[in-house]
Amino acid sequence: MSLKSLAVLTSGGDAPGMNAAIRAVVRAGIFYDKEVFGVHRGYDGLIEGAFEALHSKSVKNILAQGGTMLKSARSAEFRTPEGRAKAAEQLRGQGIDGLVVIGGDGTFTGAHLLHEEHGIAVVGIPGTIDNDLFGTDYTIGYDTATNTVVECIDKIRDTANSHNRMFIVEVMGRDAGFIALSAGVATGALDIVLPEKNTSMEDLYASIDRGAENKKTSNIIVVAEGNRLGKPFDLAKSLEARYPELDIKVTILGHIQRGGSPSALDRVNASQLGVAAVESLLNGKSDIMVGLVNGQLTQTFLQQAIYNKAPLDMELHRVSKILSI
Ligand code: F6P
Predict the structure, then answer these.
(1) Does domain 5-141+262-307 have CATH number 3.20.20.60?
(2) Which helix (H) or strand (E) holds 24?
(3) Do domains 5-141+262-307 and 143-258 have the same CATH topology?
(4) What is the pTM of this model?
(5) pLDDT digits over 4-57, tens only?
(6) Distance (Å, whole) CA 258 – CA 289
(7) Is 209 a catalytic residue?
């Protein structure tokens, strides 16, 4: 079957660079003489048939913008077989024979089911700040989010230093520690508490004791939101009980990490992956995610991208321990 038209949507948590990916999909589709539709509000919009024909000019000046011009949603209805049947019906009714989805594991789970249950050709572009998808070194948004965190922690460091304080900084990432690890190394954190590593309170005490011996004046502990040791305010309480002399503050960076103009790397990756997604569909591929591994374009089955664990470079954690003396 030769593909005549395709649609693109963003779903799940938004990420900087999603607009750059939308632009790339739209322009690549048009380059290959296909009709391209944008779907508003993710899978909810797909179920409702919220399609908009997009042209080259529809995506002008969005490359540098954060967020997603198509808006995003976490759709409860699409998790049901009935919701997916409605969505497939909408696509068929509009004469769309290929769908590009930009998002993370929840988005890909839905896309895989749409392919499996209704034979819709789907290709995924990894778009999440969490970087937790197997089959790509970078998900779109991760680089920008990490840079945002670094900028924030650098600022926290200034005030921590002025007041000889310790800060516990919680960063996003759901069950993954990519942002925490990279940002922790980049900001010289005293310790980094990751979901992927069994850090004990004793480990934290050891880092703090070592810092004290070396007369460190400001201390930043970066904790990933999915860490297994505890919530930042609870950790602060435990540390205060053991070290009453420490002045400890907690900062939860929150959704600031999801916004902002995408970094050059996210823009470049989004552009490359957007074109690759369209070309994959045109080559008859489906049920796959396009990714970049060692700078090379790759294709990974959606289920593998979701269920295999994206490997975190634990060597970086060791490096951070050596350097935080
Ligand atoms: O998946 C992206 C992410 O920002 C996670 O890091 C975080 O756990 C979650 O989404 C927050 O989701 P919401 O914006 O729905 O609160």
Answers:
(1) no
(2) helix 18-31
(3) yes
(4) 0.97
(5) 999 999 999 999 999 999 999 999 999 999 999 999 999 999 999 999 999 999
(6) 22
(7) no
